[in-house]
């Protein structure tokens, strides 16, 4: 199998399973001949795989996947704490992550699976038979990679990018320590939830003894009619007014780090994640007209108040016959809009989350406040610089947004996602070359 890997014919998880099943039916086990069979099957399946190539997101290239990639249906985001004191361990981990990510995004197992049944196995097997499902893996570096508890553990302290600030404490923050921060982040997105979790889990396994998961969050979206802007759990279309990932100029201006550097961050981006619990029980009791005032958009059409179509521009200057703004002063879209924030814009890539129920609200006083569902929005946004992106926008919003009555930010983090990876390189290599 590993030979075929070098030849670029390594079986995908699908062809491997088909071959194994065929041999089992013929009364054989997946022994050495099974592996040979899998390779033959891989050749036969190559045409089929090529046909399905549009379901594979490119791994190597200028940018990491999962940022300007059209949003997949499922996400698994994990933050890890580094336990090792050795720089070499960290480098080896990033090398192993790179190799495994290249395989998995191509629909393969994390590493070639062998015939030794006495070892735990290089892949947990739960994605065997599943396609690549547009899997992307996006790795980020938290502040703790550079300096933690006053210690420069890996000789990287001087290389912490100025944009990788400590997020300020925002009005209303109820961040729970065990859901916040981390030295490394992994965002695994795919059109299949089993594929995204599988991928993050293989990377976590490769980290045993070097780093451990600190927190993780699943998320999902569903597109109305298969293609429309998804609705969040509050029933509103979410993602309408977002820079277009198909517009390289917008991405270069707003999302990708440029000359301002550091060099290893060039063509990378900064991710802010926030776990935002929504008091759905309260929201569900609100009149629709009030809900629309809260967002500044119509619920069913998604149009801005005063407009007709979902993609009509916001008219922030329009007043009604009483002289009141059509889009209220404290409506979410007014406060979030670039015009209110000196032009600041971010690329949102948020997912709904649904973690069952939790009767304790992360609010003061911390007891039941008629809240049941632990559900809401796992807000993820990418930007060239968080100081002129998320922080700039949210500082004001966190004080005045009507939506804040229903939302509690209870976790998340800020991570620097290095630029893309060229074949032969590992994730973030240029940071280690420089330091
Ligand atoms: C539970 C929390 C949140 C929910 C349910 C939510 C929902 C929405 C909805 C429904 C829209 C209008 C449709 C659209 O353009 O996508 C919107 C717009 C927007 N939201 Fe949020 N949002 C949340 C939190 C945040 C946060 C924390 C930020 C941080 C900066 C943010 C930034 C934006 C921006 C920039 C826009 C576009 C505004 C425009 O230019 O029209 N949102 N959000």
Question: How would you describe the overall organization of this protein?
Answer:
With 435 residues, this protein is α+β, with helices and mostly antiparallel strands. 26% of the residues lie in helices and 17% in strands. The chain is built from 11 helices and 9 strands. It has helices at 2-6, 13-25, 32-51, 87-105, 193-206, 248-254, 280-283, 288-295, 332-336, 390-400, 429-434; strands at 74-82, 136-141, 184-190, 211-220, 269-278, 347-348, 351-357, 373-383, 407-417. Helix 4 runs antiparallel to helix 5 (193-206). The longest helix has 20 residues, at 32-51. The structure holds protoporphyrin IX containing FE. The site of protoporphyrin IX containing FE has 29 residues, from strand 5, helix 9, strand 8 and helix 10. Residues 232, 234, 236-241, 274, 276, 278, 295, 297, 314, 332-333, 336-338, 346, 348, 376-377, 379, 390, 393-394, 397, 407 line the site of protoporphyrin IX containing FE.
What topology emerges from the helices and strands here?
Elements: H1 2-6, H2 13-25, H3 32-51, E1 74-82, H4 87-105, E2 136-141, E3 184-190, H5 193-206, E4 211-220, H6 248-254, E5 269-278, H7 280-283, H8 288-295, H9 332-336, E6 347-348, E7 351-357, E8 373-383, H10 390-400, E9 407-417, H11 429-434
Features:
single chain; 17% strand; binds protoporphyrin IX containing FE; 5-stranded antiparallel beta sheet; alpha+beta; 435 residues
């Amino acid at each position: 199998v590993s030979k075929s890997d070098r030849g670029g014919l390594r079986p995908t998880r699908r062809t491997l399973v088909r071959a194994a099943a065929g041999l089992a039916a013929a009364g054989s086990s997946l022994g050495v001949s099974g592996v040979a069979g899998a390779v033959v099957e891989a050749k036969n399946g190559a045409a089929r795989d090529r046909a399905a190539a549009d379901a594979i997101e490119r791994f190597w290239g200028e940018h990491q996947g999962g940022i300007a990639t059209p949003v997949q249906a499922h996400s698994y985001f994990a933050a890890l704490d580094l336990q090792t004191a050795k720089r070499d361990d960290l480098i080896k981990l990033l090398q192993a992550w790179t190799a495994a990510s290249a395989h998995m995004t191509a629909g393969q197992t994390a590493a070639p699976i062998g015939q030794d049944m006495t070892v735990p196995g290089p892949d947990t097997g739960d994605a065997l038979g599943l396609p690549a499902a547009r899997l992307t893996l996006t790795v980020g570096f938290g502040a703790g990679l550079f300096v933690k508890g006053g210690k420069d553990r890996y000789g990287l302290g001087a290389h912490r990018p100025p944009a990788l600030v400590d997020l300020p404490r925002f009005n209303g923050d109820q961040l729970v320590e065990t859901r916040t921060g981390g030295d490394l982040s992994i965002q695994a997105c795919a059109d299949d939830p089993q594929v995204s979790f599988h991928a993050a889990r293989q990377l976590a396994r490769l980290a045993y003894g070097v780093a451990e998961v600190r927190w993780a969050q699943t998320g999902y979206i569903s597109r109305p009619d298969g293609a429309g802007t998804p609705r969040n759990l509050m029933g509103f279309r979410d993602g309408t007014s977002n820079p277009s990932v198909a517009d390289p100029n917008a991405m270069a201006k707003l999302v990708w780090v440029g000359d301002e550097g550091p060099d290893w961050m060039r063509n990378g981006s900064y991710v802010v994640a926030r776990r935002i619990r929504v008091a759905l029980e309260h929201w569900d009791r609100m009149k629709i007209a009030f809900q629309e005032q809260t967002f500044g958009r119509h619920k069913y059409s998604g149009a801005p108040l005063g407009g007709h179509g979902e993609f009509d521009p916001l008219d922030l200057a329009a007043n009604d016959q009483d002289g009141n703004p059509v889009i209220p002063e404290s409506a979410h879209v007014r406060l979030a809009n670039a015009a209110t924030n000196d032009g600041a814009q971010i690329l949102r890539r948020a997912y709904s989350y649904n973690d069952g129920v939790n009767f304790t609200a992360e609010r003061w006083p911390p007891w039941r406040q008629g809240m049941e569902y632990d559900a809401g929005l796992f807000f993820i946004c990418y930007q060239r610089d968080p100081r002129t992106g998320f922080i700039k926008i949210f500082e004001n919003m966190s004080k005045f947004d009507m939506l804040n009555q229903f939302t509690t930010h209870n976790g998340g983090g800020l991570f620097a996602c290095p630029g893309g990876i060229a074949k032969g390189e590992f994730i973030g290599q240029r940071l280690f070359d420089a330091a």
